[in-house]
Description:
By secondary structure, this protein is mainly α. Helix content is 49%, strand content 10%. The chain contains 9 helices and 7 strands; from the N terminus they run βββαααααββββαααα. It has a 3-stranded antiparallel sheet. A two-stranded antiparallel sheet has the order 1-2. Strand 5 (133-136) and strand 6 (141-144) form a beta hairpin. Helix 5 packs antiparallel against helix 8.
Amino acid sequence: xLNEHECCGKVYGxxxxxxxxxxxxxxxxTFENVGNDHCSRLIIRKLVxxxxxxxxxxxDELQVFDAFKKMSGFLELVPEAYKDEKQQRQFVExxxxxxxxxxxxxxxxxxxxxxxxxxPKVFCHNDLAYGNIVYDKEKDCANFIDFEYAGxxxxxxxxxxxxxxxxxxxxxxxxxxxxxxxxxxxxxxxxKCWNKVHxxxxxxGADDDVEVTDQQVESLYVVVNKFTLVSHLLWILWTLIQAxxxxxxxxxxxxxxxxxxxxxxxxxxxxxxxVPSP
Length: 278
């Protein structure tokens, strides 16, 4: 289905824990190019294409990615205690207890289901780190890979998760998180592309010719930043599972702690933000 919409390579086969799909030509993006004006516009146009897949596909064809159910499911898989003593000491040092996560999930669920906070359900990638974005220099386009988490989700989650991933993984640094100025510019162009498609003008006219209001941009900015908290919490829980089961040589608990610190640093500020009135 995604291949039919030119959103990913052709899938050749599925198996229990993955898939085999067509090679995607190009180089994976890095922090150095993912945020530049040209590449960001390529990413935005491809992301709008992906977010419009559900306009023509039936619900039966689309997997649902409910972030809150996913977090609750992840929490059930977090071990009561780690087999590795060093990891267990790390967990105890980093987190008060497992119960805090259930509490945080409910805080975010209650806050983001408030009637004043609206984000449409669209088909999302849900893991748009720059390592999952491939730049094809020959065709001058961006393509996405690794769709295992893809599914119907809130539009704002996909945008928020992309911004969070600017920090990186191996050398995670949240000073790289996009500034308000960058986000406003990025979200303005996203809305121009989004509105163009939804106004039925997907084939003609320049994206920049489409008008968007300051209120539309500011509203999306506020909601996206609130959803950065959901993105953080979901991947924190993922790290707690990976620490126990993954064979990759990587300190998942430390990475999760970096995200947990950023989550707590920004939580009260972001929950206090209000969506501007139309």
